[in-house]
Write a sequence for this structure.
């Protein structure tokens, strides 16, 4: 049993992980929030209001904590001051392990909305440059497989989001000539399951904490889509030069936006997300490692085709 602090613990992904940790019945869990939570917090865990600009106060809160899991929203803190202060406070308090707010691709190239991840990664490398002062892992499950179920919700808390793989309308967007680009898809439930195992793991955490639920090419995703939806997908092909110029020449685009994004910024960000995912996948950004798979070889991940067939059957 260890004491775990979950920063940004009222977020959707954080709540999935918290529920999984609570279900183990093993740990003392503290949820860190900027303000009093407007959601129901399980009675067997505590929440604490914190000021991420107060490193001394944070260190006091983290006293006796073994592991910090951060789910702080990157877009709300462009310079990542909150996470950097959290890291400093964790080191001061003697925290053993830290997981920054990641939970996506292994690289952030062409994805400016995730620039903050790079800043936090650099900071962790900097504080550990001379010696390891805090053990950390970059938890990277690729894209949530749940998003391919849009608009159907497949997890308790995480809202469905659209992607360039539109199973609802049986269509997708690919870069012409790059149908073999790799994407990793992992369910939210499997992410939470692996994190629960990682917290219990007695050895050293891998720095690159890849979680590979399903490793698929664009072509394979399209083939799965055709089988589970009973109809071949309409494939729209775009050109690299257009994408590099910031142009998405397609007949459709994403419409559902993350709740952290204002409506005023939504249209431009959604186009940027489509372009960014397409370009970044050409550079292997979504082909995550299998470091955690190797640590937990007996863990059974949800198969993409089985998961999606269960979602879409009869629809």
């Amino acid at each position: 049993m260890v004491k775990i602090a979950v920063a940004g613990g009222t977020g959707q992904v954080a709540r999935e992980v918290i529920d999984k940790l609570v279900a183990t019945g093993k740990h003392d869990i503290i949820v860190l929030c900027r303000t009093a939570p407007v959601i129901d917090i399980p009675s067997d865990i505590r929440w604490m209001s914190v000021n991420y600009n107060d490193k001394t106060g944070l260190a006091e809160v983290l006293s006796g904590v073994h592991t910090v899991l951060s789910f702080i929203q990157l877009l709300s803190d462009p310079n990542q001051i909150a996470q950097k202060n959290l890291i400093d406070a964790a080191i001061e308090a003697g925290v053993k392990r830290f997981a920054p707010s990641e939970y996506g691709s292994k690289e952030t190239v062409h994805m400016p909305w995730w620039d903050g991840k790079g800043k936090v990664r650099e900071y962790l490398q900097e504080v550990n440059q001379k010696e390891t002062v805090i053990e950390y892992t970059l938890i990277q499950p690729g894209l949530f497989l749940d998003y391919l179920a849009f608009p159907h919700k497949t997890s308790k808390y995480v809202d469905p989001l659209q992607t360039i793989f539109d199973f609802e309308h049986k269509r997708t967007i690919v870069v012409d000539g790059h149908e073999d680009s790799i994407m990793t898809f992992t369910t939210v439930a499997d992410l939470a399951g692996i994190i629960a195992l990682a917290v219990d793991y007695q050895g050293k955490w891998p720095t690159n904490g890849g979680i590979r639920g399903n490793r698929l090419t664009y072509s394979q995703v399209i083939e799965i889509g055709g089988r589970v939806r009973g109809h071949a997908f309409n494939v729209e092909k775009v050109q690299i030069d257009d994408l590099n110029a910031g142009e998405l020449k397609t007949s459709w685009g994403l419409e559902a936006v993350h709740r952290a994004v204002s409506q005023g910024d939504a249209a431009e960000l959604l186009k940027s997300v489509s372009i960014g995912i397409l370009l970044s996948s050409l550079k292997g950004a979504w082909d995550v490692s299998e470091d955690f798979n190797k640590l937990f070889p007996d863990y059974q991940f949800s198969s993409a085709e089985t998961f999606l067939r269960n979602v879409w059957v009869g629809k």
Observations:
- The first strand starts at residue 3 and ends at 7.
- Residues 263-282 form the longest helix (20 residues).
- The two ends are 44 Å apart (CA to CA).
